[in-house]
Amino acid sequence: MKQQWTGASLASRFKHRFVYGLIWIGGRFLAYLFLYPLVLVYTLFPSIRRKSRAYIQKRFAPSGFFTFFKHAYKLNLTFARTLTDRAALGILGRADIVSNAKDRTLCQQLADQHRGVIMLTAHCGCWQQAAASLNFFNARKYLVYYRNPKDNDKMVHEHRSQGAPFTFINPASDFGGVVEMMNALHSGGVLCAMGDRTFGSPKNSLAVRFLGGTVRLPYSFYRLAACTGAPVAVMFFPWLGKGRFGAEIADVFTVPDLGPSKEAYLPYAQKFADALETFCVKYPYQFFNYYDFWENVYADPR
Amino acid sequence: MQTLDEIKQLIASNIDLGGADLSSFGADAPIFGEKGLGLDSLDAVELIMLLQKKYGITIENMQQGREIFKDLGTLVAYVDANRKK
Questions:
Q1: Which pTM value belongs to this model?
Q2: A1 touches chain B (CB under 8 A)
């Protein structure tokens, strides 16, 4: 079983710069206007449609080509809008984060326990903006992030030529970055990570049910939670319209130390998958894992 | 030698080595990667926690981790020099 995702951008560096230019000139509105034809042209390419085929089939079960194309276009358009909003946040410094007081209080309570917090999210909604706007956690933030050299999107702080508001931990570094992750949690920090992507050895993943199929999710974060006592907060950041995104806590749980057997942590990975599925039902065009999430999952890599 | 055996026993009892026989590995056996014990990043979590629980040792950063986890010998030397338990 090989890693299916690459982290490379769908659009070229030039096209990203073009949209950034539109935002500079005419704000978010002008950029949005160009997105409709631009995304349509992109969606006409079979190679682009192929990237979202697995999700669309699982989520919508389209009956024919035109229905499939409609879903692919809407998915790509929402993705383009979230990227535009991310650039607009960086360039113009404007975005509205919608969250409820109960969730904000809960975030702060988790941080105040000084055991660290593992904030698991996924490649859906406006996770990029959220990473730059995690002010509701009053603690130092760490972002587990692998950047493909072919990733052409600028992160929010890069538009402003500022330092990142978080410390990066590269999962491709020595020991998968776990030394830094553990130290971040021990120091009471918030460790933000993607719970929907495996990295490195596929043996460190668990097979869970998701949208009528089986997918593999990373298991390391649950083991980290068990070892350090840090609570896990599953959070998603749906795109709510022009320049607005939500911050929603989908689940919070602690993981007891069940030993090194990965199967013991299956219920926790399933909790994450269930929360993600609920998100995909509520926001059907906001799951941006552009590869076949369901491929090659049946054989246990061990 | 005693610490080496102790650490080998600790690893064998707590980390899945895929059937590898630890008695055949000497102090120069790499801990991570394909050669040697073949531990991976997730095994690093287990190993760090084991060192903390058994010897009261914490790994401060990746640079330190690289030096300590180079092979069984460097790990043994670090444990002998820094153990609190």
A1: 0.85
A2: no
